[in-house]
Amino acid sequence: YNTMKIQQMMELARINIPKQLYREAMEYYYDGNLDKAVKLLFEASYQSNDSLNAEIEFKKYIIADEMFNNSDVLIKGKSIDGKISFYNNLSEISNKIDDEVNNQISLLLIQKGDSLINKNKYERGYMNYVLSLGKYPDRKNIIDIKVNNMITKLLNDIYNFLQNKDYVIAYEHLSFIKDISSNNQNVDVLFSL
Fold first, then answer.
1. Which of 179, 156, 157 minimizes the C-alpha distance to 169?
2. I need a labelling partner for 44 at 20 to 30 A (CA). Which of 57, 74, 166, 178 fits?
3. Whole-structure pTM value
4. In this predicted model, what pLDDT tens digit does every residue of 7-63 receive, in sequence order?
5. Longest Cα–Cα distance in the chain
6. What Cα–Cα distance (Å) separates residue 184 from each residue in 51, 147, 170, 192?
């Protein structure tokens, strides 16, 4: 056998693999199997040339945008963490929708923070508020209000701990408040007593 011919055929096959993967991805896309289409598009993009790669990136954006627009149906029944994971995956498919995705993740993190605070898991709730702010800084005023409300709830709990002579828990909560609030008037009033 002619090794040069074999080498040429292998090169031809290697060059055409991304095109074939792209065509298969499009078949899955048109059949409505978006997850399989995205997986094949990622595989195709690893070995594709610049012109095909541009087309792949465009299709990934189209799929991510379509999934985002149908997200109400696609995430129905999922937990908050499942919804956050869904949106993070969309961002991995195409970073062209990051603003919309980060907005949704921010809202979900606020919702998760609220839920944790209602269960008296203040530190974890606060961390979700901080993460929310990191995803969508325009929500600073909302987060400030949420944190102030959390501190008020926490201060009420601290009052009860002090009434019940649970000084260790009261002290831990007060330390937490002091750590998270640099300019909070509620804390200043409490420490002046």
1. 157
2. 74
3. 0.79
4. 888 888 888 888 888 888 989 888 888 888 888 888 888 777 778 888 888 999 999
5. 93
6. 56, 10, 18, 13
